[in-house]
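Handout, section 4.2: multi-component inputs.
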Amino acid sequence: MELRLEAVGHHYGDNEVLRDINLHIPAGKIVCIVGPSGCGKSTLLRFMGGLEQPTTGQVLQLGEAPPGCLNPLTYIFQDFALLPWRTVHGNISLVLEDHGIPAADANRIIDDVLARTKLSDFATALPKQLSGGMKQRVAIARALAVNPAVLLMDEPLSALDSQTRELLMDDLVTLWTRNPFTAVYVTHNLAEAVRLGHNIVVLSRRPGCIHEIVQLDTPLDQRHSTHPECEKQQQYLWQLMRDEARAADAELLNA
Amino acid sequence: MPKQNAQPVHFRGGGFAPQPRRGIALVVFIVLIGMAEWGTRSGWISALTLPRPSAVLQTFIDLYNSGMLWKHLLPSLTRLAVGATLGAIVGIGVGLLIALFSLIRAGLVPVVAALFPVPKIALLPLFIIWFGIDEGSKYALIAFGTFTPTVVATYGAIDNVDRSLIRMGQSFGLSWLSIVRKIILPGALPGILSGLRISLAIAIILLVAAEMLGAEHGVGAYILEAGSLYDLERLFTGVAILSILGVIISTAIGALEKRLLRWRV
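Output:
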């Protein structure tokens, strides 16, 4: 399944946050969206999954979701959004319960996604017992459990420390290499963008519009932080964004 | 390096974290009661001001031996259980409706605010006309008194449920009912339980009021009768029974919280 955004624009009151966004999310690729703070990148992601409606323009889904897909557009949130009163197993079963799946099948799905995210030993743990990185892996497992057509990731690694972030990026690359998925990945971290993005969409500051789309051809599993191509691209992206970021930083909120 | 005046950094952190201290509550009770006993025995406190704790205890033992304790306690416990359960269930239900539907919120929040400060005791005659002099008016009074604080605690607790968890539920396509049952209610449980602590204490207060009229037996009736005769020993026996009841209910809710809210950080 693919997504297409047509002339999407948005206002909060008199405040224009996004203007004329036209974007195509191709199947089997990871599209990263980067931009200075407050440029509306998370808002854009909420439009894509139907959690918010744009003032103008529309978001289209092209093609059918694959068979066995329970929730075509599935989010991974920055703050994990795990239910603290449910165990790891219970948090994943939450998203399967409304679909009338027989218990045995549901348990099989849960065991499978826990194995893929290396969490099999923690099925009975409560979220308060887990580190930030493990919590986000539970959220990734929960997202995989519904077999999504498009993964919508909203700064999924921003709440984690830099070592954990490296490990989780490796995990995401492994997951994608084994079974390529379609994803939109919003981040303010350029290193994450050049590690994970096939296309990197650079937004300008508010009102956010597409500044440039950078394409990266190096296969995901060959990229690492000191890869010359990655470094070059990251430098380039930073150059594109630096002045915007400085101007965005100097802006008053709600001015 | 030149020799300098070295001193340890002054510690100024810590504190503001309540720790369990076992047995302190017991010591406080014993000291207070011991002082009253010593005061009344030595004549420092006159017998008219405060009954002697040992005499109160003796009255309680007599009450127990005569079999009257259960005769008073059972109807009271029934009234408390029926009234408080009714009030709490309707209160949680109305609180849920207020929290979930803007129209109901707009209509009922002012009504609840108007009912909350009304002294429920003042309405006892009205309840007797509506529900009869028998048990009905007593249940209604206690239920009504438990209802208002439960409503306020419930919708406050639901308003405080993490909205990002609700968005998560929506993003996974959970049904409205699933979101309410699996996200909103468990998320509001801590607030509802702490509201219940207050509601049940109010229920005990209202028990005495409910037994003012048309009650032959009951702890409240026992206290009121002793009060009108200035029989301080019996008055304090009754008050002590209510206090013990309050401690038991508070402990029970504490145990319930410990069990149901294990997930809390």
